[in-house]
Specification:
about 350 residues; alpha/beta; Rossmann fold; Helicase, Ruva Protein, domain 3; Arc Repressor Mutant, subunit A; 3 domains; 14 helices; globular
Length: about 350
Amino acid sequence: MIFSERPVSDIRKLHGEEHRRAVQELKKNVEAGKFTAVLGPRRVGKTSVLRTFLNHYRYPYLYYDLSPYIGLTGVSYQALTPALIGFETSKLSGEAQLSLGILKLNFKVERGVEFENAMINLLREVNEKYERFLLVFDEAQVLAFVRGVNMMGLLQMIHNTLDNVVVIMTGSMPGLLENMLSPSSSKPMFARYVEKIRINRWSLKEGKEYLKRGFDEANVEYLPDELEEAVEELSPVPGFLTIYGIHRVNGKKHGEALEEAIDEAVSLWERDLEAFLNIYNSKTYVRVLWILAQSRLGFSWSELKRELSRLETVSNPKLSRVLKNLLGAGMIEKRDGKYYIAERPLARAVLRMRV
């Protein structure tokens, strides 16, 4: 079945030229021992790229899913329990198995330093056992808010001393993750050498091809205009098109399926906006998004400043900073000197907000 709400892990089912190319880039970077960040907005398929890569190439790995903690500004180190363990733990020494047990919270630890030491002990052993071992953090921007352990210091230690351990990160708030990885005198040196792979939404053509492929496989009748409308209304975000496809396969007509997919997409964006605003706690972000949601024609910087000035007094540097962060979060786009809301479901979600 092409349409599934679970991440894709079969390379034959991974749709999109950019997504398949990202799998190959990951392979190249891992073989070269390079830390890599896979960047892109929510629901564009970053996790599918990552899971496909892990399944296809069979590197041993520890996989952390930090998505439940997006938007929190304080996360306990006890949230760092591996979601997937992709190697034979029975071959570990007794000491390393104890360390893994601590990481899995099978044993209670009172202090973050015990947790940190367990991670270091385990990684040192797998560094000796394997030519390549992957430490994977999905939604790695959350690491910046982990309390109780020095995650940046841990990553620096891996980079400096564990040649066979490679870190892979994804980030759906690329601006946040890139700030964490910005090379500067105040940031760990490993950040200077992180390779970045960017994944965008599908093209309109790829979105229609995905729906057509899924409907043909499931013997669902459709009209070309239906594909066109679904792709345009859903912008064409892989996760949202999947929701629409599932509704059609389950027997719903185009209109009902699209309406329900839009409602679900808007609800998901409302949650993401709440998480974003928990971190960037300023009404200016809501107002900028609200202005951009009024028109599909976009606004230049000066037009946006003029409209925003009717709602609040804002300095030029602050507006530029807000736009930079919204661009980094994948919520807006800039084309030909104008700013646009990135997705129609996002525009609908923004228009429901109070400014």
